[in-house]
Task: structure prediction
Amino acid sequence: MTIEQERRLVTSIPGPKSQELLARKQAAVPTGIGTTLPVFVTRAGGGIVVDADGNQLIDFGSGIAVTNVGNAAPRVVERVQKQVADFTHTCFMVTPYESYVQVCEKLNELTPGDHDKRTFLVNSGAEAVENAVKVARHATGRPAVVVFDHGYHGRTLLTMTLTAKNMPYKQGFGPFAPEVYRVPVAYPFRGPSDAFEQAVDVITKQIGAENVAAVVIEPILGEGGFIVPERGFLPRIAEFCRENGIVFVADEVQTGFARTGDLFACEDEGVVPDIICTAKGIAGGLPLAGVTGRAELMDAVHVGGLGGTYGGNPLACEAALGVLETIEEEDLVAKARRIGEIMLPRLRSLQERFPTIGDVRGRGAMIAIELVKPGTKEPDAAATQAIVKRCHAEGLLVLTAGTYGNVLRFLPPLVMPEHLLEEGLTILEKAVAEA
Ligand code: PMP
Result:
């Protein structure tokens, strides 16, 4: 049954049924698992999320950049339903099945670069990044990993260490993994303007380039605040890696699968990573992630050195094939660009009216505004929260991000109808004006 593509509020947000469920959540689930918007979802599709009270909210979050093809996308549903009735699991390392291989073939073909590639599948973005580091260390025989200010790579011990922001991701969870080094990123709004030179200085003078297995970077830094590195930064880092035998790892977990108006964000500047990590948008919400890399790196690892019980589960693989078909058949790369073309001008004109918006940035359907105290670059997390609260009360689901908690990020499903996108922006404009 399709969901009417219409915002509809029938109770206050959250309504009584959601509040009841929230009380149960609080009694059953630890406080460490936060809640952005406490409405309990019963259905979702297109650009709409339906809650237990019958409210219909406009979705500017896509479950954090996951449901790029929309929730319960028809091709995903059809494939998963068939698969769940055929078999649900064998463990690919025990007895393989075709869909896993098909997903790997597709990723080898679709990711940047026409070199010989190999892919293997795991369950989450963190697991993909962690495995990319394992492969890079094994292939190079080197220990060090270089990451960037404002970077986010996951919550496992290694990927938490790779992540920049202390609160809430790292506080109290140390000691951290060794041999992780952090360098500046070229953040146009905040600098530094010589980030590349500083990064190279740290790598060559403090670590020694010959000790570095991998440089890991998000082509647009997601949780850090949708930071689009200054043009030229990524290609220069990639070139430095090539010259020094360092594996260049692109973490495209958040930017992947048409989100930024390219299938992968690296394509924007023609950057070809040695290893690319994918997750989130890959399978429409079923847990799946991929590690795709140069054949000679990936095949350096001995038999049995990689894998896991559930990696590339058959339901998730079928979902991924349905996602890739949907992206192609509905030309979601073009849809993502169109979303950017609608959002960016409206947000820029809002910025002209309200100096609390310090920066408007992003590409395709990965767009953000950074909020500051007017006339300064001082982050304004309180204003950000005030705007979020108003948006949520009006039935617009938005997310925050940023090292300083002052970024509002917008990640609509790429299939969102334009009238909902425009309505969402109108709600946001009102919320900014009121805040
Ligand atoms: N890398 C990036 C760039 C991410 O945005 C995320 C998730 N926000 C991760 C890695 C971790 O992915 P997961 O939550 O699936 O482990």
Notes: The first strand starts at residue 41 and ends at 45. The pocket of 4'-deoxy-4'-aminopyridoxal-5'-phosphate is lined by residues 64, 124-126, 129, 152-154, 218, 222-223, 251, 253-254, 279 (CB under 6 Å).
